[in-house]
């Protein structure tokens, strides 16, 4: 066999695997190729070496580990208080791989699922019990990440929550190992699949990669009334990609420049579902509900079932859709969530797989019979979901997404409106007003844009002439206005902005005045420097 550390053989293998996964568009693929070839193994502190080359995850026997289901954290009843401690743990990602060092919000690699109710506040004390040295390659040259700062910094952000600014997890509100912070979440919002993750300036891509993520479910009476599958029939599925060395340790690539190890994107061929590589899950022949989260740094998933049966999407980032949407395939960008029903009732005794691209990542083993627990059915309608009329907007902001390359055409920095994070705030929406934000994507990537504090609706997308905008500063459309897909018609907080398109969203700024931020949720982009502040003015 070929030497796995040899650049050519690993690159070829990488390409084969990428092709097998076939998740991303051609430009992203080209970038990944580039990254792999530009990656000198000897530079990174955790790089594969002769003793610990890269683990070939696709050569491991699939479907040997049961799918773990995360524990639910309740805390004290009233007032609801929880204490969540970040710590270093060891975890088995696969039967045949030695334990992996990870960071987690709990004793297992799956942060506890926090169950909450609409309008019932929760108080969380986030405790940083992590070591004081990072085990992944920190880039000290990134803004807000200097050598003069404590090396391990954390701040938890509750993604999708309407939270006063001081508890929102502003990137500079980090605290070091040995400290904690108590945050109050009013939760004056509807049922939704939220999640929490690290947001520390310059580090969150590494902290998240190390494992600092978890789900946070808000429920309400509208959801209760639907009698959806619950208990053992409602299962969180968190999906992310990781690379490992043969000794089972997390591998995160670097640029090869020890002074600037930042890389423009990170994708890996090991897909973890609830912290396991290609697990199996025993189900009954009945309807199940899956709360799906893509918590990858950069990877998009193209999800389908291998028997081509449709999945029924009932919710997106910010809660239920108006009606269930049947789909055989859908793409989930980093930070997006999908609330799915899958009906196994006609599949007794069979085995089917959830796949991304052409690659099976989770095996469902359907039992011959159901237990005696009550069965559920697919609701016809879910909730009334008024569309925000375009005419209610008092302001339209044009927001460009830009990439700047070095002489060798390597991405150097990604910007919003050609501005860096630390430049003065330019967006000051007024509280209780509605605005349209149009993201003009002048790059070759899809960027999942996320806005803190608010929920929004997507209006439309439209292709423009990139060359004409670049050379003549003229925005000329080249295609028709495209309506959002049916599963994008609900409330969103993260939206896919494809290359060469204007993506328009309509946002009502509700909740709290103060400083917030918006950014691309490709964590490598966000770190350098696709993140900008905005301030809601009372
Ligand atoms: Cu998922 Cu700024 O966060
Ligand atoms: Cu967020
Ligand atoms: Cu991006």
TrEMBL record:
It comes from the Bacteria. One of its GO terms (molecular function) is oxidoreductase activity. Keywords: Capsid protein, Virion. The keyword Cytoplasm does not apply. CDD domains: CuRO_1_BOD_CotA_like, CuRO_3_CotA_like. Signal peptide: none annotated. Gene3D superfamilies: Cupredoxins - blue copper proteins (2.60.40.420). Residues 98-221, 409-536 form the Plastocyanin-like domain. This is Spore coat protein A. It comes from Tunturiibacter lichenicola.
């Amino acid at each position: 066999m070929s030497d796995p550390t040899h650049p050519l053989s690993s690159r070829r293998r990488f390409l084969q695997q990428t092709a097998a996964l076939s998740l991303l568009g051609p430009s992203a693929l080209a970038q990944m190729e580039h990254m792999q070839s530009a990656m000198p193994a000897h530079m990174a502190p955790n790089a594969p070496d002769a003793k610990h080359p890269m683990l070939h995850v696709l050569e491991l026997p699939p479907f040997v580990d049961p799918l773990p289901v995360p524990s639910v954290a309740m805390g004290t009843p009233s007032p609801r208080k929880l204490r969540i401690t970040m710590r270093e743990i060891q975890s088995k990602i696969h039967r045949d791989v030695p334990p992996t060092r990870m960071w987690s919000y709990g004793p297992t690699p799956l942060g506890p699922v926090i169950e909450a109710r609409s309008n019932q506040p929760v108080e969380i004390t986030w405790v940083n019990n992590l070591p004081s040295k990072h085990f992944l390659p920190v880039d000290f040259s990134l803004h807000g990440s200097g050598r003069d700062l404590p090396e391990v910094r954390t701040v938890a952000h509750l993604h999708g929550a309407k939270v006063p600014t001081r508890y929102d997890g502003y990137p500079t509100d980090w605290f070091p190992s040995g400290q904690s912070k108590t945050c109050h979440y009013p939760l004056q919002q509807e049922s939704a699949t939220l999640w929490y993750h690290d947001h520390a300036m310059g580090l969150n891509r590494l902290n998240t990669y190390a494992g600092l993520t978890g789900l946070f479910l808000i429920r309400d009476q509208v959801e209760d009334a639907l009698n959806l599958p619950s208990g053992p029939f409602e299962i969180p599925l968190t999906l992310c990609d990781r690379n490992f060395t043969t000794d089972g340790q997390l591998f995160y690539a670097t640029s090869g420049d020890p002074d600037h190890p930042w890389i423009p994107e990170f994708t890996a061929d090991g897909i973890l579902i609830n912290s396991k590589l290609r697990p199996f899950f025993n189900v009954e022949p009945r309807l199940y509900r899956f709360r799906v989260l893509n918590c990858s740094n950069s990877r998009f998933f193209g999800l389908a079932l291998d028997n081509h049966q449709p999945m029924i999407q009932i919710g997106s980032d910010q809660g239920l859709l108006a009606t269930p949407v049947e789909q055989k395939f859908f793409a989930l960008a980093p930070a997006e969530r999908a609330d799915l029903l899958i009906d196994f009732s006609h599949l007794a005794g069979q085995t089917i797989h959830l796949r991304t691209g052409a690659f099976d990542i989770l095996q469902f083993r359907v039992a011959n019979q159901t237990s005696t627990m009550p069965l559920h059915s697919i609701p016809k309608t879910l909730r009334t979901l008024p569309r925000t009329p375009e005419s209610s907007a008092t302001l339209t902001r044009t927001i460009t997404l830009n990439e700047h390359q070095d002489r060798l055409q390597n991405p150097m920095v990604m910007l919003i409106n050609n501005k860096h994070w630390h430049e003065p705030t330019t967006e000051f929406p007024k509280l209780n007003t509605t605005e349209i934000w149009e993201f003009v994507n002048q790059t070759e990537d899809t960027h999942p844009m996320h806005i803190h504090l608010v929920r929004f609706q997507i209006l439309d997308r439209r292709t423009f002439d990139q060359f004409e905008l670049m050379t003549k500063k003229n925005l000329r459309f080249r295609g028709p206005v495209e309506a959002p897909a049916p599963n994008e018609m609900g409330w969103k907080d993260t939206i896919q902005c494809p290359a060469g398109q204007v993506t328009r969203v309509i946002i009502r700024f509700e909740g709290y005045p103060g400083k917030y931020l918006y950014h691309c949720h490709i964590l490598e982009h966000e770190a350098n420097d696709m993140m900008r502040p905005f301030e809601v003015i009372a």
